[in-house]
Amino acid sequence: MPAPRPSRPIEDHCEQLPESCRQRWAELLAERRTARREDDREEAFSARWGESHLRGSPIGGPFAYLALIPVISGVERRTYRRQQRRFRNKQGDAPMPASTGAPPPYTRFSRVPLAQALPLSGERTLFPWPGGKTRLAKHLLPLINERPHTCYVEAFAGSAAMLFEREPAKVEVLNDMHGELVRLYRVVANHLDEFVRHFRWSLTSREMYRWAQLQHVETLTDIQRAARFYYLQKLSFGGKVEGQTLGVGPTSTKRINLLRLEQDLSDAHLRLHGVVIEQLTWQRCIEKYDRPETLFLLDPPYWETTGYGAEFGMDQYEQLAEVMAQLKGRAILTINDHAAMRALFDRFNRVSVPIRYTVGGGAGVARRTEMTQITPLQAGGVNVVAFLEMLAWSEGTCTSPATKNRGYDVIVTGADRVPEVFTDYSVHPFSRGRKSKRINSKGLTSNASGRYQFMLKDYAHYRALLKLSDFGPLSQDLWAIQLIRECRALPLIQAGKVEEAIGRVRNIWASLPGAGYGQPEHKLSDLLAVYRKAGGTVAP
After folding, report:
1. CB-side exposure of 531: number of CA atoms within 13 Å?
2. What is the pLDDT at residue 504?
3. 309: alpha, beta or left, given left = phi > 0 and alpha = psi -120 to 50?
4. Secondary structure class of 374 (helix, strand, coil)
5. What pLDDT does residue 85 have?
6. How high is the pLDDT of residue 60?
């Protein structure tokens, strides 16, 4: 058995390096000197030096190059300081006192205990992905958190942006039909050590990128395939799965960052702890996990868009709409604002969010709108949603020629008969000092606004009662349902007794038959026709 190699001072190792690497070594040593005592630094670097030699990754071509720049981030994380550690959470760095009893269950690659496993500390997702929801997190997280659930399921996982953003649920499921994607999640969750090893000598290189694209994946192990997929996704323009091109340019930040890579992967490894990873069709996934306590996040490929690497035709959207209407649990669907999609999912409540798409477009791409929709269970059933549609039709808001958001943006028409809409959903349009509009020649004024024509005098009360964060579509729907509930009409609507329910709420909406406010009233038969068209059922 050969004698162990004697440890040598770090400076001797530096002398053995090429000139191009010495400056980097000096920087690393300076950083190390501020964090470790001299003897600990010698031991850690000497151990690391034993692994530092000219070699390529077992993957071959794309990950092999002749350079000797060791990565010390792993050494930093693997050598724990028992007296005090720092961990990252949503509020940034915070001190963590030394354990007084048994040490917490740290993994090999992270300072963060499993109990503190939170969203990624660096980038919000492991890799870019078409239609990723990172930029929509501020809109989606409140919707997710406000709905009680113990099981959280992403049926179209993609980059799982919302899973990494949100707090862990009791049961969490990631599902996707993309085999390479599912393989990557499983490898990061179960084989992090070996996975990270494949990137110790990786470069952001056009030649390596091309080599990775040309590899025959059938000849690789699961870990090698996961490493190849991760490398391509990190460097591809727009995170596209098909038609990939290298997304690196003069202003691009896309690269394999060796000093951050292990930390980001370690954080993802911790966050995926306990997450069930499935590779099922979306239909089978929903069928398997649909329970009253389940919340589904449904993020299918956008209609008439490309880059996902999978086909999703109109028949699938139609099937998805039918499945959503019959869910036992709850669901949030995100889809692009397209006329065909609006018509197909019109039975559900909808929130419109402006967002700029950049994949395949660049700076000149126009702003489009992404809709956030929830199932009828949020409202209390399909009949309740249909009744809300009937009210909007009766008030003339959803049919207004000026509306750009199904009546949620409509202001009462004045005496000049010119339709008007608003664009700021943060508060009631008249709550900032605007005077009420004169609506007839007799001098009658009104400030009714929104899909259900709410008056300013009631806004403060219901905003506090329902804890409404804004005057957006969801807030307006909740307000309308509360008014219906106060009139004791909600059980009648759920039972299909629509005529009786209309009689209960007609003192609120003047356009309903028998309201008696002197305004035009609709016929009951017309209202029932709109109600049925929206999916509502009428009791015999």
Report:
1. 25
2. 95
3. left
4. strand
5. 36
6. 39
Average pLDDT over residues 268-287: 91
Q: Is the dihedral of CA 132, 134, 135, 139 positive or negative?
A: positive
Taking each continuous run of H as one helix and of E as one strand, the counts in the chain are 20, 13
Q: Averaged over 207-236, what is the pLDDT?
A: 81
Domains by residue range for the chain, with CATH? 125-177+281-378 (3.40.50.150), 179-279 (1.10.1020.10), 380-533 (1.10.530.10)
What's the confidence (pLDDT) of residue 535? 85
Stretch among 102-116, 202-216, 248-262 having the lowest mean pLDDT: 102-116
Question: In this structure, what DSSP letter does residue 454 have?
Answer: B
362: left (phi over 0), alpha (psi -120 to 50) or beta: left
Distance from the Cα of residue 69 to its chain's centroid: 36
Exposure of 267 in the CB half-sphere (CA atoms within 13 A): 20
Q: How many CB atoms lie within 10 A of CB 254?
A: 16
Alpha-carbon distance of 411 to 365, in angstroms, equals 30
CB 302 within 8 A of CB 310: no
Give the Cα separation of 452 and 443 in Å (integer): 23
The C-alpha atoms of residue 134 and residue 263 are separated, in whole angstroms, by 19
Pairing between β-strand 151-154 and β-strand 92-97 as defined by DSSP bridges:
unpaired
Distance CA 392, CA 210 (A): 55
Q: Which two tokens stand for residue 178?
A: 């993309």
Nearest to 386 by CA among 493, 474, 473, 502: 493
Give residue 377's identity as a one-letter amino acid code.
L
50-64, 377-391, 415-429: segment of lowest average pLDDT: 50-64
Percentages helix, strand, coil for the chain, rounded to the nearest 5? 40, 10, 50
Q: Which of 172, 278, 370, 395 is catalytic?
A: 395
Pairing type for strands 171-175 and 151-154 reads: parallel
Sign of the Cα torsion 439, 444, 448, 449 reads: positive
Q: Does the active-site annotation cover 395?
A: yes
Name the residue with higher pLDDT: 28 or 313.
Answer: 313
CA 133 to chain CA mean position, Å: 4
Lowest mean pLDDT among 16-25, 46-55, 155-164, 521-530: 46-55
- The identity of residue 83, as a single letter, is Q
Question: Considering just the CA atoms, what is the radius of gyration of the chain in Å?
Answer: 29
pLDDT in tens, 406-453: 888 899 988 888 899 998 888 999 998 899 998 888 888 999 999 999
Please state the length of the chain.
Answer: 540
The half-sphere exposure of 181 on its side-chain side, counting CA atoms within 13 A, is 27
Give the CA distances from residue 449 to residues 95, 434, 460, in Å, rounded to whole numbers and listed in that order. Answer: 50, 12, 14
Name the residue type at position 71: V
Q: Do the beta carbons of residue 120 and residue 164 sit within 8 Å?
A: yes
Q: Which residue type does 369 have?
A: T
